[in-house]
Write a structure and sequence with these properties.
This protein has helices at 13-21, 43-49, 53-57, 114-117, 187-208, and strands spanning 2-7, 24-30, 37-42, 60-64, 67-78, 85-92, 99-108, 122-125, 129-134, 143-146, 155-157, 168-169, 179-184. The chain is 22% helix and 38% strand. The radius of gyration is 25 Å and the shape is elongated. The protein has five helices and 13 strands. By secondary structure, the chain is α+β, with helices and mostly antiparallel strands. It folds into two domains: 2-93, Ribosomal Protein L25, Chain P (Beta Barrel), CATH 2.40.240; 100-191, RNA Polymerase Alpha Subunit, Chain A, domain 2 (Beta Complex).
Length: 209
């Protein structure tokens, strides 16, 4: 995905305010062996790009005044109540060094799982993104999670997911196999089944007499 930016020489709060009034968003590119570089980007183009999932988890081709380099989106700030991107940060990427990034999880085949198809249950997504480490060339836009084997009362954990080649999960804290998804019967359905059984019980007893 290509991103066009321009070198920014005027710095400070006042300069940033003038940039935003002119329809530009100030930003910075850092990392690698080169010095950090202040940039500005067209606000509307950036605002719409931020709505795309791939923009957050892909290697981007950042072109600054005609010179391109590979970067990752690392951070951005938005206004508290206006549709306004205040600042954006990009990190340079080295093809020979592993990167650490969050990628979204895409859940598939829930509708054919025993939990949903046979028991009328629901599958809850406990985690929606995953911290991974890989070389830039191996970075996936997302990680697919197959739910076809999920049954009621069961959980899907990190070690149950098949990660793409060259990709490893980065864990935080003591849990090395966190829960990704769970399958259960909705509370309302359980209550309704209990009430139906209770209502049917007197009729059964009467028939026996």
């Amino acid at each position: 995905m290509k991103v066009v930016a321009f070198a920014r020489k005027e710095l400070g709060t006042g300069a940033s305010r003038r940039q935003r009034i002119a329809g530009m968003t100030p930003g910075i590119v850092y990392g690698g062996t080169a010095a950090p570089m202040n940039i500005s980007l067209d606000h509307n183009a950036l605002y719409h790009a931020l709505k795309k999932e791939a923009f957050h988890s892909s290697i981007l081709d950042l072109e600054v005044d005609g010179k391109a380099e590979k970067v990752l989106l690392r951070d951005f700030q938005v206004h508290a109540y206006k549709q306004l991107v205040l600042h954006v940060d990009f990190q340079r990427v080295d093809a020979t060094h592993k990167i650490h990034v969050k990628v979204p999880l895409h859940f598939v085949n829930a509708e054919v799982s025993p939990a949903v198809k046979l028991a009328g249950g629901i599958i809850s997504h406990v985690t929606t993104e995953l911290d991974i480490s890989c070389l830039p060339a191996d970075l996936p836009e997302f990680v697919e999670v197959d739910l076809s084997a999920m049954d009621v009362g069961h959980s899907l954990h990190l070690k149950d997911i098949k990660l793409p080649k060259g990709v490893s999960a980065v864990q935080h804290g003591g849990d090395d196999n966190p829960t990704i998804a769970t399958a259960s019967i909705p509370a309302g359905k359980v209550e309704a089944a209990g009430e139906a059984a209770a209502a049917a019980a007197p009729e059964g007893e009467a028939d026996k007499k």
